[in-house]
Amino acid sequence: MIEYCSHLAWQMHATEHRELSLEELTAFTTRYSTTEVRVDLTTRIRELVDARVLSRSGDYFRFRYHYIYYFLKGRFLSSKLRDLAVLAHVKECCAHLYVRENANTILFLAHHAFNDPAFLECVVEAVNSPFAAIRPIEFRGGDTSAIAEFVRDLPALKYTGEQPEAARERANRHKDALDDGSDGMADAKQDGAETEFIPQMIALFKTVEILGQILKNQIANVGRSRRVELIQLLMKGPLRAVRAYFDLFMVDREQAQRELMQLIERKKVVDNDQKRQQLARTLMAQLMQFTSFGFVVKAVTSISSDELQDDIDAASRSIDTPAARLISIGVRLDSPKDFPRSEMRNLLNEVKTDFIAMRVLQMLTLRRLYMFRTSERDKQWLDSQEVLGIKMQHAVDMRTRGTKLLKK
Question: How distant is the alpha carbon of residue 386 from its chain centre?
């Protein structure tokens, strides 16, 4: 049954609307019965429709749920990777992962073919292709100085002391409110997309997700040296995207600022050009701050795993830049464990003169505080390192504790 459905998924892949007419389904089943195993079509249709695997509309059939279609398509592809036509399709999908169909295909194929050398080679090529001509950001040597000058006037980040449970609930409500059903992906391949920032970014992020899934879920099936090599590639991809974004921003910042000022004027937010210019600049600086953090945290969440920490540290040492160490620290912070004090102290000394790197580290630390319960001891240590201004929260904690003791 599963083998039949896997071949059926590949057959539907070749149709425009991912569905087959009864006539087409009959022809497919006849071919399948000749080359594989004999199938009685009437019985098979009844079984698959009753099991809600297929849905029927008149004389047309399709898979009821997208994930069933992609799971079965991935299963078929994994068994045929030695077929040149199938391998060409997989390579085409990997080359255009900003397309929804391609991204879902490779995501589910990874579940079946995680350790196939041909498939892994396609994934490696996909993670190396976006922004291939750009060096990964290092957060040293002044490579963020121009951006830092633009965002330096942003206010300091603050920690409110909100409990992790409440913070997660608030974040989920905000995410739900923003969800309009769009995934940001394209329906079809676009001409020239390989040189445009947004398609390259989407393709890179999808590849990072897929590669991270392989590393986390199949750790016992990928050798250590290969894991370290793949983690290096996974780190470098988002760091290339950071530099590409900075370069793009510096080229377009004046035009973007003018457009923002026009929007602010139409909305009548402020009443004069000087205030509009300052507000536009602040909004752009905040965007830069959160985008830098977003690219780094994408790498962090994709490989975040206690089992991979040794490999992540090895990959970071091999790359040997503050940016790579920032990702490694981010993985350690993506956990309820105690703060990695010695590693953070070393990194602080390394990036204290880089405004952007410091901001990213602060935001990673804030993310940890809001995601997981944090001991007073760790908060005091953070305060001593001047990473975050949390003195007020200490006072609240100590007053609460003192009140409880007095009541006892």
Answer: 30
**Cα–Cα–Cα angle for 375, 156, 327, nearest 5°?**
60
Q: For residue 305, what is the DSSP state?
A: -
Query: Looking at residues 384-389, what average pLDDT do you find?
Result: 71
Exposed / middle / buried, residue 296 (Cβ in 10 Å: 0-12, 13-18, 19+): buried
Residues 6+ away with beta carbon under 8 Å from 12: 18, 19, 20, 62, 63, 69
Whether 223 contacts 126, CB under 8 Å: no
User: pLDDT band at 396, cuts 50/70/90?
Assistant: very low
64 Cβ contact partners less than 8 Å away, ≥ 6 residues apart = 52, 53, 54, 55
Residue 360 phi, psi (nearest 5): -65, -45
Rounded to whole angstroms, the Cα distance separating 379 from 161 reads 10
Nearest C-alpha neighbor of 324 from the set 306, 351, 289, 345: 351
- Whether the CB-CB separation of 297 and 367 falls below 8 Å is answered with yes
Around Cβ 168, how many Cβ atoms within 10 Å? Answer: 14
What global pTM score does this model have?
Answer: 0.85
For 270, the token pair is: 């402020």
- CA pseudo-torsion sign 228, 232, 238, 239: positive
What is the C-alpha to C-alpha distance for residues 112 and 273, in angstroms, rounded to an integer? 58
Strand order in the sheet with 20-21: 20-21, 60-63, 54-57
Among 1-5, 250-254, 307-311, 340-344, the range scoring the smallest mean pLDDT is 250-254
Span 73-94, pLDDT tens digits: 999 999 999 999 999 999 999 9
What CA–CA distances, in Å, run from 241 to 148, 213, 406? 17, 20, 54
- Of residues 379 and 73, which shows the higher confidence score? 73
Return the exposure string of 96-126: e unless at least 16 CB atoms fall within 10 Å of the residue's CB, then b.
Answer: bbbbbbbbbbbbbbbbbbbebeebbebbbeb
Q: Using H for helix, E for strand and C for coil, what is the string for 312-369?
A: HHHHHHHHCCHHHHHHHHHHHHCCCCCCCHHHHHHHHHHHCCCHHHHHHHHHHHHHHH
